[in-house]
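thought: fold this chain, then report.
action: predict
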Amino acid sequence: MKPANLSPAGESDPLVGDQLGARSFSNRYRLWLCDVWGVVHNGIAANPDACEALERHRAQGGVVVLITNAPRPSRVIHGQLDRLGVSRDAYDTVVSSGDVTMDLLANTPGTVFHLGPPRDLGLVEDADARFAGIEDAATILCTGLANDDRETPEDYIPLLQRLQARGMAMICANPDKVVRRGDTLIPCAGALADLYEAMGGETIMAGKPHAPIYETAIERASALSGHPIARDEILAIGDGLSTDAEGARRNGLDLLFIVDGIHEAELAGLGGAGFAARIREAVPGVRLKGVMRTLRW
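observation:
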């Protein structure tokens, strides 16, 4: 892998790139809030370089909270990470969009219709809510496409139109529009929420880039540390512009952006300075501190 050149022509840019590695951030930021899918694994196998970086940060006294838009309770995510080969030494705890969604459901009156695949039934089982069919429900819980390897969001337009005609609000348990599974981009619940909103439907989003998942993650990390962790001690790490980068901006956090994720194709060939310019153009005001092709120590 060639190091990224992160200096724009004619001026210096203090960004950290592949040539310095994530070790440059370990002393500066006690808490790393690290995205999971696209950074720690690709949906098929763990990224050994990323896992090593997280382990070494923890070995130096740092705290790692994996922060994921997976629409499942964090208790389920641990087992998934085990199966993908992510060592439990790589993180202190996990906070998921599913955790935040359960809080939303606990405060949702009436019954709920689940729109999503069977693998997300852990969220349905754990939630403090009553579930029902379309005709009897007042709210939609959207966790994704039933068959995301074969279906597209557009396949759901007739169903979404039917739901919208009934005036049902949608709780979107995963704001991600796509994730990368191996070399393939797979549509997520966020893509369905976009279609629903375009039809005039009401959407309520859990997970990144919204504040509740960050607040929960910081609270848990502070509890693990035994003292509050200030925002300037926190580094957000991720590969999504609309989730990780926008989440860092909204929540006042510094960002390390990982290129070889869902935006790999559109960022290909730009080089370090080009990466930085594209990220800052897409998310004005983001506090970008580093750009790496993959998370490595």
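thought: worth noting. The longest helix spans residues 211-225.
final: tokens above.
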